[in-house]
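Data availability (excerpt). The following record was deposited with the supplementary files.
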Amino acid sequence: MYMITEQKPFEEILQSLQGATSVYLVGCGTCPAACRTGGKPEVLAIKEALLGAGLTVPGWMIIPTACDELAEQAIVAQGEPIAEADCLLVLACGLGVQNVARYSDKQVRPGLNTLFFGQRDEDGRFVELCLQCGECVLGRTAGICPRTACAKELVNGPCGGYHNGKCEVDPERPCAWMRIYDRLAAHGQADQLVTTLTIKDYRKASHPRRTVVVAQ
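Predicted structure:
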């Protein structure tokens, strides 16, 4: 599973760096590396682009996972070149950017847009799988999330527009609810779809979300 990202347009990155003359680059060796948005090749490409734009780059690093405690260790280890920079440009997901900002007193700028949480499909593309909505219905829908698999996020069966098992919004992909029905029927559980899901409790998805960890 990956946090899927895309690189911001370089013009937008430059605009966010206005006032800075020296930029330290931070990449991430996990999700952005897999997406080819913030691994070593992408960090080096951004470095060359920044140098071409007249900025200096005192250093760069790839944190194995920018969203955990390794970020603090890496920032401490790179203290000297980071001290020379006006700000940090972070090629990581939103979690990684916030984590780097947590451990550094330098200004932090994001180089990526965070899109969704997903994985590679059989065609090698990244596909959204989970909205982290706080009310999981996968037990009722054969392990297929209707909110991500259905273009309309329908939670109580297909719309009237599906045709020959295909989605009305995107005729190239199968209807999510036909997939759900077929999988349930194969296990003799199609009767689960008779029960209507209740209205979603959006309080569970209000931001910022927190949970309590109970000590063992």
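Summary of structural features: The helical segments are 10-16, 31-35, 40-52, 70-77, 79-83, 94-103, 146-149, 176-186.
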